[in-house]
Amino acid sequence: MNENNRMVSTSQKKSLHSLMAANLSKLTIPCSSSSSSSTPLSNEHDEFDFSHVFGHHHEESSTTPASSAMSPHVIHSRSHSFVGPSPRVAPPSNPVLSFVNELSSQSEGEESEQLPLNEIHNTEEEKVSTRIGPTDFEILRVVGQGSFGKVFLVRKKKQQKKEGEEEECCDDVFAMKVMRKETIIKKNHVDYMKAERDILTKVVHPFIVQLRYSFQTKSKLYLILDFINGGHLFFHLYRQGIFSEDQARIYTAEIVSAVSHLHKNGIVHRDLKPENILMDSDGHVMLTDFGLSKEIDESGRSNSLCGTVEYMAPEIILGKGHNKDADWWSIGILLYEMLTGKAPFTHTNKKKLQEKIIKGKVKLPPTVSTEAHSLLKGLLQKDPSTRLGSGPNGDEQIKSHKWFRPINWKKLEARELEPKFKPDVSGKDCTANFDQCWTAMPPDDSPASTPTAGDHFHGYTYVAPNPWLSSK
């Protein structure tokens, strides 16, 4: 027995030495006279206390049925989205110590090395010879923090190709969403994380943020998405106060186009709001955050109480069951907010807010055109069966509405209609539109403990087909 222990100890040491040798070349020592090894790492709970950038804050709803413990949480606090809620927390004060601890964690099995794709998948479609993992990406900056981890701005490292192999074509930088398995399992969100990944692999659209890779280690899940550097629609709406009808029209048309594409693929977003819409450097909007999305067929319905209350359709609040028509309501609320600067139903008490959504009347200011009034009236019908957009070809009814008469939908979906407003962006890796509370943090993918339960995330790894990787 003692001999076996000595063998394991020697093996662990060799593994750690090998890992350190492979990674020391990437280590950057901060310019300081000394580095105190006694500096504590950031509190474990700091990484899971969220409120500001890139996401929504999940709270238990008092109206959620007891039988729906696994249902998505209702969102009662408005905040930026992309990967989950984000707090203003103190960053780790010693990135070097974090790096050393991560190496130690990996040697103890808390973090696996990058995994071959063909070891993760069993089906023929999933077997890929390429190896992909966290070490294939250079972390440049933190751009958000969410319910289950962080979001980093990353650059994919160039890999040496064997003779005869074509060079992989991809964008320079990406957003890397990192989620801790242990936290996901504890919060019973395994199905939602898997659904988000599955949905992202099925949608390719000019106004939807694209998934490029997904992979996992023993303790974390990783999503590699296009980095959209223009900031959130919420940020620009807040700064401008209201949008002109011409500006709101092109944004709404692009959102309608994206949501229509989702619906045709049997997907309902269920959390449409300005914080879940990003803006690219050309001024086009990009739909993101599929954490509450669900696949529902044309005749199917979902009874989950989920979404952000201000944008929640009446049928969701009433628990009558909902389908894609709930998204059209949310788009109506979104358009109202773009034109007036606030949502039509607001209240500090969430129960009274829900009552207003169910029973209240929509009041429009006289500055809104009759065409916009007509569209809002159609989208904000409380009965989903009479709502504009309901039925098999409901999206075409919306697209042909007189308010959208100036829109050439073919040119729009070819990204040939140029928005008049373009965000101030200096380059692909520009993070000026993201909160400095994140961009100033040390870019650490800190270690995490490995769940002791079984394999909840089998088949999670994914590499986008080459046409996606070469798209602009």
From TrEMBL:
Residues 56-128 are annotated as: Disordered. Residues 62-73 have a biased composition (Low complexity). It comes from Stylosanthes scabra. Residues 137-404 form the Protein kinase domain. The keyword Phosphoprotein applies. This is Uncharacterized protein. Keywords: ATP-binding, Kinase, Nucleotide-binding, Phosphoprotein, Serine/threonine-protein kinase, Transferase. Coiled coil: none annotated. Residues 405-472 form the AGC-kinase C-terminal domain. Pfam families: Pkinase, Pkinase_C. InterPro entries: AGC-kinase_C, Kinase-like_dom_sf, Pkinase_C, Prot_kinase_dom, Ser/Thr_kinase_AS. The keyword ATP-binding applies.
